[in-house]
Amino acid sequence: MTDVTNGVLHTLFHSEQGGHEQVVLCQDRASGLKAVIAIHSTALGPALGGTRFYPYANEEEAVADVLNLARGMSYKNAMAGLGHGGGKAVIIGDPEQIKTEELLLAYGRFVASLGGRYVTACDVGTYVADMDVVARVCRWTTGRSPEKGGAGDSSVLTSFGVYQGMRAAAQHLWGDPSLRDRKVGVAGVGKVGHHLVEHLLKEGAQVVITDVREEAVRRVAERHPSVTVAPDTDALIRTEGLDIYAPCALGGALNDETVPVLTAKVVCGAANNQLAHPGVEKDLADRRILYAPDYVVNAGGVIQVADELHGFDFERCKAKAAKIFDTTLEIFARAKKDGVPPGAAADRIAEQRMAEARAAR
């Protein structure tokens, strides 16, 4: 357990993202590990969520992020119909600089000490090879390589689920799920984004891409010469004739600066926590932009890693991820019926499922 500053305590106990069951601050001086594990809810089962490895500016920022991410996982797992609650972990530091086998093993021991209340997996900055190391000391690890009994890269089904969410948005808005000739802007073509581009191109969509990493853009553009490259996200969201905007990088993509200039009629992407603050979804609705809740459409990955705990079967997982199409349509219908934005409708459904589970227990 790490030393806790007054700032971290303030974040923990005065956060607007309250209601968490447990927050563990972890430190291993020998390896340099500093991490935070947050368990938001175990109403539906053991908390499940990935490990983010990121160079946060300070501990307060890391705690705020993990609280938000853990809460989001509770809602995501509930909407995906999984027998899991929500949790998340963050490791503080630049993975390119401090990630070592010793550090990952130390982290795995902290996860193992929770006795199965939290099941970890990959996230930003962590990969299948990292989970293989963590699994050496922690049985509650998913996202491992097939050679180690795991399901491998979860970004494959994450992108497939987002693609299904886009099809549902097209069905709801235009009366046809086809994305042929639709212009789709993908911001972030890393682990998930580049797979999404392939789904879109296969269906005949026009794709515009951007990424802060030049090598990521170059890799996709060389493989798919038909894509258009925007110089940055600001240019992408202002692209004329854009039908769908897909944020696939870090959170907060929809904010007071981006929403007023967004040309797309639909937002559906893989990034977590796309809304910078609660008022943003109303701003989208006021501009008649249809928002597909991020934690619903990007659930393909968590569906995959959850299945790994029971003996992974890719086709079974893909069939479950395909149901994101129906779930997204259900949310749009509920939003229309209740007169609320889609995110609020999704929240209500997820909260009802968690409340019913708590009552049953």
TrEMBL record:
InterPro entries: Aminoacid_DH-like_N_sf (IPR046346), Glu/Leu/Phe/Val/Trp_DH (IPR006095), Glu/Leu/Phe/Val/Trp_DH_C (IPR006096), Glu/Leu/Phe/Val/Trp_DH_dimer (IPR006097), Glu/Leu/Phe/Val_DH_AS (IPR033524), Glu/Phe/Leu/Val/Trp_DH_bac/arc (IPR016211), NAD(P)-bd_dom_sf (IPR036291). Transmembrane segments: none annotated. Pathway: Amino-acid degradation; L-valine degradation. Its EC number is 1.4.1.23. It catalyses: L-valine + NAD(+) + H2O = 3-methyl-2-oxobutanoate + NH4(+) + NADH + H(+). Pfam families: ELFV_dehydrog (PF00208), ELFV_dehydrog_N (PF02812). Belongs to the Glu/Leu/Phe/Val dehydrogenases family. Homodimer. This is Valine dehydrogenase. It comes from Streptomyces thermoalcalitolerans.
